[in-house]
Amino acid sequence: MRLILLGPPGAGKGTQAKMLKDKFQIPQISTGDILRQAVKDNSDMGARVKIIMDAGQLVSDEIVIDLIKERIKQADCEAGFILDGFPRNIAQAEKLSETLIEMNLEIDCVIDLEVNAEEVVNRLTGRSTCAECGAMFHLLSRPPKVPRVCDSCGGGLEQRPDDNRETIRERLKVYMESTAPLKEFYKKQGNFKMVEAKGSVEEIFSDVCGIIDV
Ligand code: AMP
């Protein structure tokens, strides 16, 4: 099964992608995670993208398209994958379509997680992520049992540098301008489904699984 998760920053794409990955045993491919890892590793690419990511802008299409092309050709993607944070604009979506046609593959479902701007700010300002296993927590709605320690693996929790009010506003603007038009793009392809990303993580996951219809 090949899925795309769309939605603004803070819609819960990463959380839902991780749950889908566990349920269906297919990899989550998060361009944001791959880029953040490159920054941590101090790679050439990491150094090039850090300033752009910290400013809440999109890194170049060329970089992310190359990353995705390479990643979806790997053996663990044979049974499918979940794209989380890619595509982010029409040019990326078109390149993805081209690549999939070359590989004789199709996207089964594009799931758009809808959430309003006020909720995005609330979610992202309280968000923290485990540096070791990537588990996600929220100061109010999903606090860790021990402050700043991951419930799952005991790793340290960290806040993303782009989860501050100013950068969140910029990321939302970029989302509205560049990413939101993908909804129409995929609606025309006929495999687009919308989920109201309200309620608990489990409730949203149940809605997501309901529309995947497997
Ligand atoms: P995310 O983890 O998906 O919120 O992404 C964090 C940041 O990584 C974004 O604000 C962008 O700077 C960059 N990024 C992630 N995915 C993409 C993409 N598909 N195209 C361009 N930039 C991306």
Describe the 3D structure.
The structure is a single chain. The protein has one domain (2-115, 178-213): P-loop containing nucleotide triphosphate hydrolases (Rossmann fold). The longest helix has 15 residues, at 165-179. 48% of the residues lie in helices and 15% in strands. The protein has 9 helices and 8 strands. Helix 4 runs parallel beside helix 5. The chain is α/β, with parallel strands linked by helices and 214 residues long. It binds adenosine monophosphate (AMP). Adenosine monophosphate binds next to helix 2 and helix 3.
Considering the chains and any ligands shown, give keywords for the structure:
three-stranded antiparallel sheet, 9 helices, 214 residues, five-stranded parallel sheet, 8 strands, 15% strand, binds adenosine monophosphate, Rossmann fold, single chain
What does the secondary structure layout of this molecule look like, with pairings?
Layout: E1 2-6, H1 13-24, E2 28-30, H2 31-40, H3 44-54, H4 61-72, E3 81-84, H5 90-102, E4 109-114, H6 117-125, E5 127-130, E6 136-138, E7 157-158, H7 165-179, H8 182-189, E8 192-196, H9 201-212
Helix pairs in contact: 1-9, 2-3, 4-5, 6-7
Bound molecules: adenosine monophosphate.
The site of adenosine monophosphate has 17 residues, from helix 2 and helix 3.
| Sequence of strands across the biggest β-sheet | 2-3-1-4-8
Quaternary status: single chain
Number of domains: 1
Mean pLDDT: 95
Q: What's the main sheet like?
A: 5 strands, parallel
Helical run tally: 9
State the name of the first-level CATH class: Alpha Beta
Number of strands: 8
Using the 3D structure, state the CATH architecture. Answer: 3-Layer(aba) Sandwich
Structural class: alpha/beta
Shape: globular
Low-pLDDT ranges: none
Distance between the termini: 10 Å
Using the coordinates shown, work out and report the CATH topology: Rossmann fold
State the order of secondary-structure elements, H for helix, E for strand.
EHEHHHEHEHEEEHHEH
Relevant CATH superfamily: P-loop containing nucleotide triphosphate hydrolases
Strand percentage? 5-15%
Gyration radius, in Å: 16 Å
What proportion of the residues is helical, as a percent range? 40-55%
Distinct ligands: adenosine monophosphate
